[in-house]
Amino acid sequence: MEYGIHSRTPLFFCLLFLFLLYTTIAFNHTTLRFHEAYSPLFSDFNIQRSPDDKTVRLLLNRFSGSGIISSDYYNYGFFSASIKLPAENTAGVVVAFYTSNVDTYERNHDELDIEFMGNVKGKPWRFQTNMYGNGSTSHGREERYRLWFDPSKDSHRYSILWTPKNTIFYVDEIPIREIVRNAAMAGDYPSKPMSLYATIWDASTWATNGGKEKVDYKYEPFVSEFTNLVLEGCIVDPTEQISSTNCTDRIASLLVKEYSTITSEGRKSMKWFREKYMYYSSCYDSIRYPVPPPECVVVPSEREMFQNSGRLREKMKFGGNHRRHRRGQRSRRPRKVEVTGQVAAL
């Protein structure tokens, strides 16, 4: 199985380890037990909690997927978990870790996504990040990537920082994407309180090769494991027009955390990741967006990588063909969960 690395020499991995060691910071987190912060979202029978309540396993089988939701809404925050994905043939399987307020703001909801897409046996998992603000679901801001490791062999930490100023997506303390809020974004920047979700579900209609590869339940159950649960932010009542909770101090505290600003070394890590493992970006998709979305910062070295469709110009990265981007059809998850935008047929 390839994960975007053609050279697997000991020297390569030694250099990679040293690179990651010196360009990342180990964040300090307060982890939570499941009962302290989460509730079942759907299919309790497919949710397994460890005896110490620090780990939760979400199962997908022929009967249902499963999901959990934070017990509270947060007005900005840092959301993180160590996640281990299913192995074997995972075509059609989607595991999502994301924030949303669709239950309260059905027509103008906000959302920030990390969404993992399974693959046929022997092919690697892929994942995407996305952002919606104020119901802008027809204007998804997808970016899609591969990983330098096999996410089904060990747990890795995935995090979403969301502040009034910026949003940063992290993989193992490496910043992989930053969205800096600006005036031109207006309501497209998520700004209403959101809950945190984690789900696994059957996305056979679109997730693998445009829906050609379906979930094969011969391999059930598909198990995704979540541990080291982190929820940091100001808890609010999303239905109150004027919040009874003053979040000023909590937001100020969030903004001075080590993960709220990308250091110069962090920028090098992000550049390394994006130039090696990103294979689609809406910022370079001039077919969908003749004018790039207002949050986009065009980086010349990235611009050179992509066609007008936002997909890679060459087959050089991952040793396989990359289909041209096509807009997929939206599907609905079980109640209270919504598919995060229009997804390319991969």
From TrEMBL:
Listed EC numbers: 2.4.1.207
UniProt PTM: Contains at least one intrachain disulfide bond essential for its enzymatic activity.
Indicate yes or no for the key word Hydrolase.
Answer: yes
Q: SUPFAM superfamilies attached here?
A: Concanavalin A-like lectins/glucanases
Instruction: Please give the chief subcellular localization of this protein.
Output: secreted
Which intervals of the chain are annotated as region Disordered?
316-341
GO biological process terms on file: cell wall biogenesis; cell wall organization; xyloglucan metabolic process
Name its cellular compartments: Secreted, Cell wall; Secreted, Extracellular space, Apoplast
Positions of the catalytic residues: 111 (nucleophile), 115 (proton donor)
Q: Give the GO molecular function terms.
A: hydrolase activity, hydrolyzing O-glycosyl compounds; xyloglucan:xyloglucosyl transferase activity
On whether DNA-binding is a keyword of this UniProt record, the answer is no
The record's Gene3D superfamilies line, in alphabetical order, gives: 2.60.120.200
In this chain the GH16 domain maps to 32-226
Provide this UniProt record's keywords sorted from A to Z: Apoplast, Cell wall, Cell wall biogenesis/degradation, Disulfide bond, Glycosidase, Hydrolase, Secreted, Transferase
The source's superkingdom equals: Eukaryota
Gene Ontology cellular-component terms for this entry are: apoplast
The protein's matches in InterPro entries, at most eight in alphabetical order, are given as: Beta-glucanase-like, Beta-glucanase/XTH, ConA-like_dom_sf, XET_C, XTH
Q: Where is the composition biased (Basic residues)?
A: 320-335
The free-text function statement in the UniProt record for this protein reads: Catalyzes xyloglucan endohydrolysis (XEH) and/or endotransglycosylation (XET). Cleaves and religates xyloglucan polymers, an essential constituent of the primary cell wall, and thereby participates in cell wall construction of growing tissues.
Name the family. Answer: Belongs to the glycosyl hydrolase 16 family.
Protein name in the entry: Xyloglucan endotransglucosylase/hydrolase
Q: Which organism is it from?
A: Fraxinus pennsylvanica
